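Whiteboard transcription, Tuesday session. T.W. wrote the structure tokens on the left side:
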């Protein structure tokens, strides 16, 4: 596939209490589950590690251009770091994401392809983004507009119904379960 894959590992893990990216889950660090599953899809897979020591990961890493901005900073930096025009961006704390889901999302043609729940809640950290939105993201960052949901209303976006994917058997109902606290493991 002609897509980059960025695994975001830049969060502070406040609710988890320790760096969850390196937390051992089923015999390996949490981030490594996604890296191992998704590496077969791209020749450009990397960790977007915020300001952390990239040597901790043992794979290709990039640091964020802007720090402590939340998801928008990680997405922006991942798009700037990626080699391909489109990048699947995923949070490191979503170990249930499967390669088939990434393939499905990347089959759609839009500047952003994002899963959305029936109640309107987006899954921004399991979406495909085009480099075309980099100037838009940068403008929002420098003007202090860090609300991630706004990017889904002001760009060329393909919204994918999560409930529809589940009912069709294309994803599991736990696909978007993320690890925020140790008891989420």
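and on the right, the sequence the group agreed on:
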């Amino acid at each position: 596939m002609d897509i980059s894959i960025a695994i975001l590992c830049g969060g502070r893990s406040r609710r988890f209490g320790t760096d969850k990216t390196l937390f051992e889950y089923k015999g390996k660090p949490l981030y490594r589950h996604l890296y191992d599953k998704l590496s077969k899809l791209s020749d450009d897979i990397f960790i977007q590690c915020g300001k952390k020591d990239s040597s901790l990961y043992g794979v290709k890493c990039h640091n964020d251009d802007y720090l402590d901005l939340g998801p928008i900073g990680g997405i922006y930096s991942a798009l700037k770091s990626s080699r391909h025009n489109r990048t699947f961006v995923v949070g490191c704390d979503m170990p249930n994401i499967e390669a088939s889901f990434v393939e499905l999302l990347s089959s759609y043609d839009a500047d952003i392809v994002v899963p959305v729940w029936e109640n309107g809640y987006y899954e921004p950290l399991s979406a495909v983004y085009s480099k075309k939105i980099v100037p838009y993201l940068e403008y929002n960052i420098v003007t202090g507009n860090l609300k991630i949901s706004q990017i889904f209303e002001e760009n060329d976006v393909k919204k994918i119904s999560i409930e529809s994917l589940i009912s069709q058997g294309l994803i599991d109902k736990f696909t978007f379960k993320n690890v925020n606290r140790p008891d989420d493991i």
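Someone added at the bottom: The two ends are 31 Å apart (CA to CA).
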